[in-house]
Amino acid sequence: MNTQQTEKEFLKTYNPNKYERPSVTADILVFTTFKDELYLLMIQRKSHPYKDRWAIPGGFVSIDETAKEAAIRELYEETSVKDVCLEQLYTFSKVDRDPRMRVISIAYIVMVPFEKLKFKSGDDAKNAKLFLVNAMPDAEFELISKNEDESTSILQEKDLAFDHYEIIKMAIKRLRGKIKYSNIAFSFLKDLDDFTLTELRNIYDAINSQKADVGNFRRFIKREYEQNGFIVQTDLKRIERGRPATTYKWAKERSLIFDE
């Protein structure tokens, strides 16, 4: 090796084929909530490998884009969702995770209000569907969906492509952990300027897979959010279960919700 070379000279003669290069994908876990249930968007693969199995939406990172840019692009192509915050979950690099070749996946979590989620099957998918996440306390889970004929489809680990079961399991743990110390629950709300505590509690229940005590939850929200000026009451009332319910709005910068 010529130690007298300048960096410019070194790069001019460098052989980029000296080392094998793995491919990189960006996979996106699109979570939403409906009432007190957590849902995840899945696609059914059209081609090999894992033909007809269900997978997380995603795709390969192009040579001229970052992983996050690829995730944003794939998210829009698969779901028509844009202008949302992506949170990087983890990099999955098990050597044999893809039977085609060495593929490293960078997974992202997206939290989308149910009313704003529109999705379609991409070019490499034969179907796209929301599945109810039935998760246990240890984050083991199954995905449940009702079919057009009113029958029920249940997806377990063996029904999923690649290592996506482990990716989803880690994402569930991340959501459950982060909801305890961050504002992510508010990202699932349809309208940050008009919501009730029941709607907010439903989101907590959906992520935690268990119902919170109503009184304790109200005291928690009052202590952590209302007294600190994060949310304020509005002059509007909404009827819930036959009774008028107080509505609230988010009073701080939106970046405090949608930060990474």
Main traits of this protein?
single chain, 12 strands, nine-stranded mixed β-sheet, Arc Repressor Mutant, subunit A, Nucleoside Triphosphate Pyrophosphohydrolase, alpha+beta
* Helix-residue proportion: 10-25%
By CATH's scheme, which homologous superfamily of the largest domain applies? Answer: Nucleoside Triphosphate Pyrophosphohydrolase
| Rg calc | 22 Å
**Total helical segments:** 5
Order of helices and strands: HEEEEHEEEEEHEHHEE
Number-wise, the strands total: 12
- Tell me the β content: 25-35%
Major β-sheet annotation: 9 strands, mixed
What is the number of independent domains? 2
How is this fold's topology laid out?
Blueprint lengths: L6 H7 L9 E12 L2 E9 L8 E2 L2 E3 L6 H13 L6 E7 L10 E9 L13 E11 L5 E6 L5 E4 L8 H15 L16 E2 H12 L5 H13 L4 E10 L2 E8 L10
Parallel strand pairs: 1-6
Antiparallel strand pairs: 1-2, 1-4, 2-3, 2-7, 5-6, 7-8, 8-9, 10-12, 11-12
Protein name: 8-oxo-dGTP diphosphatase
Pfam families: NUDIX, WHD_NrtR
